[in-house]
Amino acid sequence: MKTPLLFMDDDARILDGIRTGDETALVKLYRTNRKSITAFLLRNNGTADDAEDMLQEALVILWERVRAGRHEYGARLSTFLFATVRNLWLRRLARKRRESPATHPPEDHPDETLSPLDQIIDDERTEAVRSALDALGEPCRTLLLLFYWEELSMEDIARRLGFANADTAKSKKYQCKKSLKDLLTNRSPGLEHA
Amino acid sequence: MNTPDVPHISPETLEDYVLEKLPPAERAMVEHHVATCSSCRAALEEELHLAAGIRSSGRTALKRRLAESLAASGQQPAPWGRILSAAAVLIVIAGIGIVYRWFTPGDQAPQIAETMAPVQADKASREMPRPEEPEPSARFREKREAPEGSQLRISPAPTPAPVTAPALTGQTASTRESERAKDALMENKAAVDAAAESPDAASALSEHLSIWRTGQLTENTESDQYELFLKSDQLAAPHAAGAQMQKRQDLAGHIQTFPRAIVRVSPLVDLPLADAAGRTRAGAHGIPTQIIQSPDSLVFTLFTDLPFERDALRNARVRQSAPDSVVLLIGGRSISYNLSLPVAR
């Protein structure tokens, strides 16, 4: 049985909001956590802008986890956000160090991480897909976002976008993906198969 | 190299693979197949890039909407606002420090030391004869991160603490030293209290005082292990009674100086690999844990996906089950750590 909102604490209320797609829940979380996150970043070679960026990144991760049903977590949301920001920031610092060969020779780098060049190529591919997705138009853009980002089932997508049934949504998804691939091929031939 | 006799992977399966919806066996099958099928490998790479780009697009859009909402509500502070806020906080902290030093007589130091004394951990320890009050801060002398295998010192040291440490010797320290030590102690206490609520403050502490251990989880342990031990002692066979009694006395010596436990939980995925790699092992019953030593507490950060009720975390207790083992009791679970404590004297 669902807990009545009246008896839910702040975290439970926010999680419930995220589950139902209410983005103002993220705004509330941002407000309550900004100061501690900023203080942490400032103490660790970051700036206030870095703090804004990291906190937004952590909020998006939380959003994705909750929406995909992967957030089963007993601690407070502020703890989760802080831990996430900390890890994101450590990764960013490590990446910065990798990009400064003068201070950190290549042999220090673990083999499994992407080289700066691979990272640039990867970023370019991602940017190309993002740009093509924007150019794709609706409803294809939303359909693909619901499928790949929100990870909704075809039944839910059909319901959300007003398709007759899951099979219709699936067929539409196939068309949309083909259009997206065509756009990518025309815009930057060879890039997606590089 | 293509494998014509094996059917290629369907686009739907590739999608499920990318979305991590495949069961492990099918996932392994896909990985095995793409290792030998170049066309399937290319299709998988394309699928991965599409998914990465689409997800990135979703994230960017969400971040943009979030930024717009914040801007609309005037939440984004101007840089001057931040600077002024920080300055105001510094002034308040400095003011409190001055007022505190000015108005607090030095001979109250022992009283504060008493309030900072470790909380008696359980009923058994309360029934024990109370020893001489230890120097509270002496338990926290090890400020640097202890390497794996080292022991977390909690019990009082036999010699007086140096002036630079936040130690209170009460009768022997000068007034100035007492005040300085008192300030340090109060700062530590404030930091630990904040750590209970703020992960930020906990992190600040962890930079100096943390160690890593893997806790061994035992389910359905509602009972007190120490009390269980006492019961087993009473039921022990006569020929073992002597050894049991000695063990019991040893154990009783340890229980007197238990700090309170502050427990926080982070998902396993957030285990900082750079920090914890090689120091902890997550297994079926192993919980990688960062243990932060603080003036009157042990702050346990458990990296696990196990669900813990907030009340259970709040009411967690720390006990010693053996001279080299500490047990964290959380609700119906107990988590054991290899954490040696010297015998209290």
SSE order and pairing:
The complex is a heterodimer of chains A (194) and B (345).
Chain A: H1 10-19, H2 24-43, H3 48-67, H4 77-98, H5 116-136, H6 140-149, H7 154-161, H8 166-187
Helix pairs in contact in A: 1-2, 2-3, 2-4, 3-4, 5-8, 6-8, 7-8
Chain B: H1 11-18, H2 24-36, H3 38-72, H4 79-103, H5 109-115, H6 123-127, H7 175-197, H8 199-209, E1 210-218, H9 225-235, H10 241-255, E2 260-266, H11 273-276, E3 286-294, E4 297-303, H12 310-314, E5 317-322, E6 325-330, E7 333-338
Helix pairs in contact in B: 1-3, 2-3, 7-8, 9-10
Strand content of chain A: under 5%
Low-confidence parts of chain B lasting 5 or more residues at pLDDT below 50? Answer: 106-175, 180-208, 221-239, 251-257
Rounded average pLDDT of chain A: 78
Tell me the number of strands of chain A. Answer: 0
State the distance separating the first and last CA atoms of chain A: 51 Å
Instruction: Count the domains of chain A.
Output: 2
